[in-house]
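For reference, the entry.
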Amino acid sequence: MIDVTIENFETEVIAASMTQPVLVDFWAPWCGPCKVIGPILEKLEAEYAGRFKLVKIDSDQEQQLAAAFGVRSIPTCILLMNGQPVDGFMGAVPEGQLRQFLDKHLPAAGPAAEEELPAEEPLDAQDRLEQLQHAVATNPADDEARFEYVKALLLAGRLADARVAFEPAAAKAAGIRRLDSLQRVIDAMDFAARQGDADRAQAGLEARIAADRRDFEARFGKACLLAAQQRWTEAMDELLEILMRDKTWNEDAARKAYIAILDIIEPPRPKVAEGQIPPDDPTVATYRRRLSSVVLS
């Protein structure tokens, strides 16, 4: 359980929810029901052993955060996944009901992986590709290994190979965020390939944007062209231009494409001593903050 304020909200809630569901408990010291549900939530966090992260926000001290989430009474609990609220409840609900709420949304508990890719020594790009290819061939159902393999192929500029490697998991993309991210980046690169000359295509899109700053299709197309050239931050800047004007444009296409790029560019986290938190990549951390500031504004 972690106490969250406006200063660490981005790191402990938004960024953390990209890889682990985060349950936010809005409470206050004077609230009787809060004192009932609080210990139950802490007990469940321990029992669920990493399947979700519990954070507590004092709604009296952090009124800006409470207002951003529309909190009208406490306790209020909100579950975030992939940077977005997905469900919530109010009041000191019984433990059994809490378990039902969590089990409805959290990934199922499973046995610890028997093997993990070795990370003791840094590998060059080719060695890592070969290692990931072997992992996928050994266990085709390992979506995490497949994600890392396809991601490595995309970063190496091997779009055709990435498309072939992704195909066995494509049907699951709609339900698994990181696979969905791969699909979106592949789609962006396919779009760019269909445009022919990249400079001419970008110039045409920029002319449309200059004529109408709310031409979101042109902005999205430009972002796809930039992503295909691995100009990742420029692509995200263009997507932010859409989000600042229309947060849900085209069924959240801009936000989902933005998250897809973050998934692709985020490097493997370095190993740290037990109990320590590995540092975030500075570029990824900066662009996550920018996304959350727009989404929560």
User: Anything to note?
Assistant: The longest strand covers residues 84-90. Residues 98 and 166 are 37 Å apart (CA to CA).
